[in-house]
């Protein structure tokens, strides 16, 4: 056998191979030696170089975006493969560093549209704990902040950033030192501002990205002052992303955020409807006194569903929740509202998240952003404030490709106005009717419960008054007319024997009857002179009464009705709701009803003298401009209010005077004098307080400066008494975030009332409904403090004191 092999050739071949291998090993070795940060830098440079080529139309998978492996991997694990439309259209702009205004229907995936850019932005800059706060995400409610935090924990798990949830509290002392090292903060506006003001080590001067989720809500009047104060603390060079289903385009709003040539992305701008296509929406016109029966019958016919029911106010939720638990409808009933303590809110939230069949009674704190899986129905027990609120409420169902149904209960007086608004906002809603035979009457049961328990009766009364107040305070008077409500029947339907006395309503009604369409100048100026306390002031009296009712510690609050009689199937709703596909927006009947009503309330002819007398007697507020705080309290804007405690006495006095005919000029003079004195006293106390505050701040700054020079951190630590939840994204693994570690901001606020002397007098830290109760408590405590200051300690010398008091008194005598 001839040997065909050529040893020289073989050797050459072998040598070539050897050299190649040697070179590869060398290359690999040299690569291995590259420090990790260098590899990371190269990866980042590669990604960034692709930013300019992003074409949202060509993106199909998340991996088509130049985003980090760390993010991609986590998205994959969460089963997020293909970006939704809003994600496709905004992520590119956000990566390129542009300001973005993103609008897309509810449930369309806006959360990831900002979380991915947040992660990439910090990754790109290799952000670490020493860099402090890099991104800030602001949510209107605690629940939404908590939910966003959970999503961030999942999609950011491979990154090394720390993330904090700042929704208040001071229980986790040990965490307090971490706060200034937190890279991504998710927060509600009020708590964030409090941190900015009070936590020495917490600053936002290096902030790279600001995100407002539910931006239109955060930019609206309720949060205006808080947000403006927050923005003042942020660097101008940051990037800003705004997202909402109902986006603001108002130049004024955007100017407040100093956006730089923002990209406006409105995914569904050309869509026929503004609500998800998979959402079926209907409305029923029903009398106020039929609503409880309607709700009960609805729940009884949907026992195997997951339902959210929206109410106008907390007191309604509190009362009806308890009553429905007692009625044992055959499905768990839960309640979520702003007067609950934070722990309870988290508990209810988690409970409803997990449950397959349940009914959640909620106020509008649950209207925005919350992503409960598989909610089948959204029932709006009370008419929403406006079409945007409607859109957000119904958006709790039919999320991300899922189906859902929504039912709106409208009073006859609300139909015309509300339906017109919905039509204008492109909301398709069908009018349906309820099968009267299926309507179950629970009034007698309610009466029996109230007869047994005084506490329930009081709750029913508060529910009654609060509901009327909420209707009265609604701005859109074309939809909400408290005078059209059948009060007696409504009270009976709640199980009450008689309608509670609603003082503000009596006064408002009297005022309305007095109001003449045209009044001459002479009379207006006379009225202006007789400026008095209007009915809305009394509102706030009622409000403060409400505050005393803190029954949230009650375990019953989360009690559930044990399921009974779950034999009915869901076909029941076909019986209960009879679909009547007639002209949805045909509102002729309702319009007619309104015309009839208005003719009844035609003002009676009265003489000028008589009218003037009545005005003086009833202490009407005339020629005034009233605006409303987020807590629903009316505040007189014009003319400036000079009245306080003295004016309340005046109301009482005038009630007493009511029987006396004629004008008691002497008494009126005396009252005016007292009011003026009261006003001056408060002004005096305010000035003293401001002076004190200035002194304290100076002292504090000096202390801080001194400790800095000493290199001593203890001063900071002492003042660093705000503790929050801080989680580290990396290595958080699959382990569940324990909500019990969430602090209890309500408790904190109660405590802080005693300690918090440094609080700026005028700043409203929180104006959302979620923080309603604690804010009022703080206000009360602050008032008390002010009074004490005025009496006990002015901070001035005795001589100065005397001089001031004499000055004040001399002006009065
Ligand atoms: P929005 O903020 O627009 O109301 P969310 O961000 O809460 O909507 O998302 C709605 C639902 O859609 C969530 O359950 C979320 O997990 C899911 N989702 C979002 N993006 C995607 C995606 N790309 N793929 C699959 N599901 C997604
Ligand atoms: Mg959202």
From TrEMBL:
EC numbers: 3.6.4.13
Q: Domain Helicase ATP-binding, which positions?
A: 91-265
Compositional bias ranges of the Acidic residues kind = 539-558
Q: Provide the Helicase C-terminal domain boundaries.
A: 291-443
Family to which the UniProt record says this protein belongs: Belongs to the DEAD box helicase family. DDX10/DBP4 subfamily.
Please name one Pfam family that this protein belongs to: Helicase_C
Q: What does this protein do?
A: RNA helicase.
Spell out the protein name for this chain. ATP-dependent RNA helicase
**Ranges of Basic and acidic residues composition bias in the record:** 666-686, 702-716
Tell me which PANTHER family the record gives: RNA HELICASE
Q: What is known of its domains?
A: The Q motif is unique to and characteristic of the DEAD box family of RNA helicases and controls ATP binding and hydrolysis.
Q: Where is the composition biased (Basic residues)?
A: 687-701
Q: Domain (DEAD-box RNA helicase Q): give its ranges.
A: 60-88
Q: What enzyme category does the UniProt record give?
A: hydrolase
Entry keyword ATP-binding: yes
What InterPro entries does this protein map onto? DEAD/DEAH_box_helicase_dom, Helicase_ATP-bd, Helicase_C-like, P-loop_NTPase, RNA-helicase_DEAD-box_CS, RNA_helicase_DEAD_Q_motif, SPB4-like_CTE
């Amino acid at each position: 056998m001839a040997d065909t092999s050529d040893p020289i050739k073989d050797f050459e071949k072998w040598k070539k191979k050897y050299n190649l291998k040697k070179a590869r090993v060398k290359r690999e070795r040299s690569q291995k030696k590259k420090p990790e940060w260098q590899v990371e830098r190269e990866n980042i440079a590669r990604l960034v170089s692709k930013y300019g080529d992003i074409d949202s139309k060509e993106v199909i998978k998340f991996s088509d975006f130049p985003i980090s492996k760390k993010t991609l991997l986590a998205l994959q694990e969460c089963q997020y493969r293909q970006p939704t439309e809003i994600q496709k259209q905004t992520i590119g702009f956000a990566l390129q560093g542009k300001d973005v205004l993103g609008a897309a229907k509810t449930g369309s995936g806006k959360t990831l549209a900002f979380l991915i850019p947040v992660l990439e932005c910090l990754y790109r800059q290799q952000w670490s704990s020493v860099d402090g706060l890099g991104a800030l995400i602001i949510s209107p409610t605690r629940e939404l902040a908590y939910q966003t935090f959970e999503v961030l924990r999942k999609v950011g798990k491979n990154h090394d950033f720390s993330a904090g949830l700042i929704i208040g509290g001071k229980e986790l002392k040990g965490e307090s030192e971490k706060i200034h090292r937190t890279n991504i903060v998710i927060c509600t506006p009020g708590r964030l501002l409090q941190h900015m003001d009070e936590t020495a080590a917490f600053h936002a001067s290096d902030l790279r990205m600001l995100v407002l989720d539910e931006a239109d809500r955060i930019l609206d009047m309720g949060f205006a002052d808080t947000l403006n104060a927050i923005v003042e603390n942020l660097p101008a060079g940051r990037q800003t992303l705004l997202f909402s289903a109902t986006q603001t385009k108002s130049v004024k709003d955007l100017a407040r955020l100093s956006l730089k040539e923002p990209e406006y992305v409105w995914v569904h701008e050309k869509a026929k409807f503004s609500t998800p296509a998979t959402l079926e929406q209907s409305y029923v016109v029903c009398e106020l006194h039929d609503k409880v029966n309607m709700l009960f019958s609805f729940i009884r016919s949907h026992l195997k569903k997951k339902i959210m029911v929206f109410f106008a106010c907390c007191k309604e939720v509190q009362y009806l929740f308890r009553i429905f638990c007692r009625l044992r409808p055959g499905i768990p009933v839960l309640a979520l509202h702003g007067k609950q303590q934070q722990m309870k809110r988290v508990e209810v939230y988690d409970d409803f998240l997990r449950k397959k069949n349940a009914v959640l009674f909620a106020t509008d704190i649950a209207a925005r952003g919350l992503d409960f899986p598989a909610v089948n129905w959204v029932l709006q027990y009370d008419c929403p404030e406006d079409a945007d609120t409607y859109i957000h409420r119904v958006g709790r169902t039919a999320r991300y490709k899922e189906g859902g149904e929504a039912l709106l209960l409208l009073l006859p007086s609300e139909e015309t106005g509300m339906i017109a608004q919905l039509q204008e906002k492109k909301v398709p809603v069908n009018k349906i009717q309820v099968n009267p035979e299926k309507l179950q009457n629970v009034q007698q049961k309610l009466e029996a419960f109230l007869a047994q328990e005084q506490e329930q009766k009081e709750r029913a009364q508060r529910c009654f008054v609060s509901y009327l107040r909420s209707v009265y305070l609604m701005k859109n008077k074309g939809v909400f007319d408290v005078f059209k409500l059948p009060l007696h029947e409504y009270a009976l339907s709640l199980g009450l024997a008689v309608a509670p006395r609603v003082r503000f309503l009596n006064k408002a009604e009297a005022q309305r009857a007095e109001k003449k369409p045209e009044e001459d100048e002479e009379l207006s100026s006379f009225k202006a002179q007789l400026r008095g306390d209007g009915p809305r002031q009394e509102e706030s009296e009622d409000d403060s009464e409400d505050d005393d009712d803190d029954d949230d510690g009650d375990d019953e609050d989360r009690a559930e009705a044990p399921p009974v009689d779950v034999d009915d199937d869901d076909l029941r709703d076909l019986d209960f709701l009879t679909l009547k596909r007639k002209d949805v927006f045909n509102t002729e009947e309702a319009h007619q009803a309104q015309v009839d009503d208005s003719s009844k309330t035609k003002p009676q002819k009265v003489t000028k003298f008589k009218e003037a007398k009545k005005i003086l007697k009833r202490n009407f507020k005339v020629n005034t401009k009233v605006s409303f705080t987020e807590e629903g309290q009316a505040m007189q804007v014009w003319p400036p209010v000079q009245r306080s405690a003295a004016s309340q006495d005046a109301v009482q006095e005038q009630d007493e005077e009511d029987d006396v005919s004629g004008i008691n000029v002497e008494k009126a003079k005396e009252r005016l004098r007292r009011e003026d004195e009261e006003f001056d006293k408060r002004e005096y106390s305010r000035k003293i307080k401001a002076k004190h505050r200035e002194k304290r701040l100076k002292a504090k700054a000096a202390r801080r400066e001194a400790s800095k020079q000493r290199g001593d951190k203890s001063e900071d630590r002492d003042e660093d008494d705000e503790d929050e939840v801080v989680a580290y994204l990396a290595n958080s693994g699959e382990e569940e975030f324990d909500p019990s570690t969430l602090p209890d901001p309500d408790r904190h606020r109660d405590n802080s009332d005693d300690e918090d002397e440094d609080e700026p007098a005028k700043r409203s830290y929180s104006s959302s409904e979620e923080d309603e109760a604690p804010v009022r408590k703080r206000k009360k405590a602050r008032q008390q403090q002010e009074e004490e200051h005025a009496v006990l300690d002015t901070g001035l010398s005795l001589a100065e004191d005397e001089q001031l008091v004499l000055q004040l008194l001399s002006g009065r005598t």
